[in-house]
Amino acid sequence: MVRASLAYQKVIPGQRIGRYISPDPSFQDPGDLCDVREETEVEIQNARLATEVLSWPTAGFELLQAPTRMQSFEDESEVRKVYYSEVQSLLSEVLEKAGAKVERVMVFDHTIRSSTASGLNTLGVRGKWAGPATFVHADYNERSAPQRLQQLAQTPGYTGVLLPAEDVQKVLSSGQRFAFINVWRSIDPLNPAFDYPLSLCDPRSVEEEDWMNYEMVYPDRVGSRLSLSNRAAASHKWYYYPEMRIDECLIFSCC
C-alpha cells in the first residue's frame, strides 16, 4: 500500500465544471467553465496483493493475462490489422464469461499515452501521443454515453467504424445493454511500466452524490464525463497494478 495525492475536482458554487478543447492555438477561452483540482492524499492498495476479489463483474476492472502478437504498437497499420481483433476477441470472452450475451464488439478509438507527451487529447491526429491524465474522472456519464453511441452511427470513429443507425436506435429504445470498456496495456516489450501507473477506484466505495458532471467543449460538439469530489475521499478504495508487463492488460468499464 502507498499513500499518494490524487487530483479530485473542486466544487465552485455557482459555476459549471469543464474545459474547452481546441486544436487552434489562437482559441480564446471565454472563461465560463471552471476546472479546479484539489490534491488529496489517499491510500492506494497494490491490487496484486488484494485479498478481496477484484474482477470486471464485481469492481468494474480486472487484470488479465493476455499475450499479444503485436511487434510494434507505434505501427498504426499493425495495430489495426492485429491488435483490434485481439481486443475484440478478448472482450467477447470476458463478457461472455461474466454471463453477457455479446452481439457486437467494436473498436472505435485508441490512444498511446506517454509521460513525455504534454497534451491530454490527440484530437484524432494520427501518430500523435497523449500525456497521462492525472486527475480523478470517469470517461462518460448517463447523458454522454448514449450520445456517443448515437454519434458513432452518424460519423465514423477514429478507426473508421460506423454503427448502423437502426442498431443504435434498437439498443436505446429497447433498454438493451451497451458498454464502453477501456483496454489498458504497457507497450514496452522489454520493461515493465513504472511511471504513472493507472489508479482505479472501486465504484462500490463511492457515494452517488459525490459524482459531478464535467463538460468538454470541442469545436464541433459538447461531450461530458464524470468528476469526483473529495468530500468522502477517506472512504474511497483505490487500487493500482504495479509494473504491468506487455503480456498483461487491464480492462475497466467507462460506462
UniProtKB/TrEMBL annotation:
Family: Belongs to the asaB hydroxylase/desaturase family.
InterPro entries in UniProt: AsaB-like
Protein name according to UniProt: Uncharacterized protein
